[in-house]
Amino acid sequence: MANIALSEAEKTFILHGVEEDFRVDGRSCRDYRPMELETELVNNASGSARLRLANTDILVGIKTEIDKPSIQFPERGKIEFFVDCSANAAPEFEGRGGEELALELADTLANAYESSLAFDLKDLCILPGQQCWKLYVDILILECGGNLFDAVSLASKAALYNTKIPRVTSALMDAGEADLIISDDPHDCTRIKIDHIPILVTVCKIGDCCVVDPSAEEEECSTASIVVAVSRRDDSTFISHTHTVGHGSLHKDTVFNCLKLGVPVAEQLNEALMKTLILEESVLGMQKNRCVGFLK
């Protein structure tokens, strides 16, 4: 995370505000900062999204290619996460300063998506043991203003929502090789099921209290945080992964309180995200279908 120099008086002011459930920017411990979301921004990507959470700015692009399934999971497709921290996002990211954070973000997302209940890779399989789709999720951190894990997960889910995979018809030849026919019609495509894809919620411990969506200043006042990956399936909510951030330790009661706070917040975030994606898709569809000049 970006390091911000704070005096002891500033840290004390933030700590006292959190204890009174009234943070520096006027939020309560359960509130998020304003968000802005745009999708279908990158023309040469199968799906893309840009999310701005206060001063945190994330751009995600999805690329697809046909690959061979792994020997261990012949009926599953593949997904890989790559995170790049722009040198303009924070002074600490200059040179190779952001590599450790980028690897931590990518590993946390990969672990959260690993459960088949959270993201079923069987939907990406074309021919078991022969061919499958491989998704590359490229994440670029344009600006760092705190709470990167949550912003990255929301932007990734939004990009996967509008990802379009060409429809493939396949057949096995006499030699056992697969003959694939990929449709070149941009409208003849399939969509990825994102209903169960998890949302990451960072619960930050400041003093004896837990807050969500920590700002960069609040992260500087915290010794430890828990990132909770929350998914939903069959009207039930479950945690697919947890990750601890920071150099401090957490008591078991604190961990329980963090999970108790993070799960309902993730449900609210997911509901708001899905409503926004559906609304934006309908608006973009109306704009694409609108006649411009003499072109029909």
From TrEMBL:
SUPFAM superfamilies: Ribonuclease PH domain 2-like (SSF55666), Ribosomal protein S5 domain 2-like (SSF54211)
Superkingdom, natural source: Eukaryota
InterPro entries on file: ExoRNase_PH_dom1, ExoRNase_PH_dom2, ExoRNase_PH_dom2_sf, Exosome_comp_Rrp42_subfam, PNPase/RNase_PH_dom_sf, Ribosomal_Su5_D2-typ_SF
Subcellular location field: Cytoplasm; Nucleus, Nucleolus
GO biological process: exonucleolytic trimming to generate mature 3'-end of 5.8S rRNA from tricistronic rRNA transcript (SSU-rRNA, 5.8S rRNA, LSU-rRNA); nuclear mRNA surveillance; nuclear polyadenylation-dependent rRNA catabolic process; rRNA catabolic process; TRAMP-dependent tRNA surveillance pathway; U1 snRNA 3'-end processing; U4 snRNA 3'-end processing; U5 snRNA 3'-end processing
Any one Pfam family match given in the protein's UniProt record, by short name: RNase_PH
Exoribonuclease phosphorolytic domain boundaries: 32-166, 196-262
Entry's Gene Ontology molecular function annotations: mRNA 3'-UTR AU-rich region binding
Keywords: Cytoplasm, Exosome
Annotated Gene Ontology cellular component terms: cytoplasmic exosome (RNase complex); nuclear exosome (RNase complex); nucleolus
Family, per entry: Belongs to the RNase PH family.
Protein name: Ribosomal RNA-processing protein 42
